[in-house]
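Lecture notes, unit on protein representations.

Consider one protein chain, 333 amino acids long.
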Amino acid sequence: MNRWFSLRLIPPLAVILLCAGFLIWIDRPEFRYALAGNARECSAYQLVNLPESVDFVAIGSSRVRRGIDSELLMQKSEGLISDAYNLGRPGRSALRNLRVLRDILGRPNDLKFAFVEIDVDLLFSSRKDGGLGLGPSSAFLSHADLPDVYAHSLNNPALQTMTAARFEYDKVRYALVGLFSGLIWDTYQSLDQPAPRACWQPNFDKVFPGKIARERNTWRRRFDDLQTATIDGSIKNSYIVRQQLELLDEIRQLAAEHGITFLVSRQGAAYEPPLSEKTVRAIKAIIPEFIYPPESLVRRTWRYFADNHHFDTEARDMYTKWLARQFVKAAED
């Protein structure tokens, strides 16, 4: 009887082991990035085939992807940067930024400079939850990030466990969708594609005046005169701020271990007033790597947005030239 019972356990145990093996096998950047959606294959090609000669990467959201021109950055860096790649993808997540940098540094390369997006709005937030940017960004993350997911969730064991469980559920869900849709197999067969300098799409240069007008009117309701208005943000001593600073510190430590100069910032929205000098100084006091464009540059870009959140070609060129100068300055210091 006992022997018969033991034999009956073999099939379910084999299925469990097979599933666990599958989840471990696809927990690699090429598959994780392919599962992330929105021209997903491009991100897989970028990381898998990122050349060893890469010396600059830009990491962050779609604002980074559409707001930094890798070719122009190299041209304007005074010979400092020779092989730049823009790894921006839709979605905001400090934890995802950390994972992308870990994945890059897990492969041989000559990386010396990195631009990492920081969600400035969260520094002014008193929120007591969220901030990790999970959901769609979970596909980018590895099961090895589970300790970070747990540690940077609310300091409440029950909620931490729930967040960690939801994260693992999302990871399994994305894996199954990729398996049954054929995406994993398609990605596996096409990984010899060269790494593009940015995951660009033809519709990015299309302008949406209606979205820009709505954004302008939103800011006008808050400020009488947009041409002189600035945003005075008060940095909170909240859970969400501590979470973001802790994740940024992990990025800082990783960069220091590999001798990388990294700078952080975030591009504003259309007609969003620039941060005040007082606010920029306050951010720099806690984040020395923070950089921010002059007020005049922020206002000049307003006319050159493709939609309410993304630069068009003119604004992208302005911002990229300014960014190149910031890295030249950082290298000189």
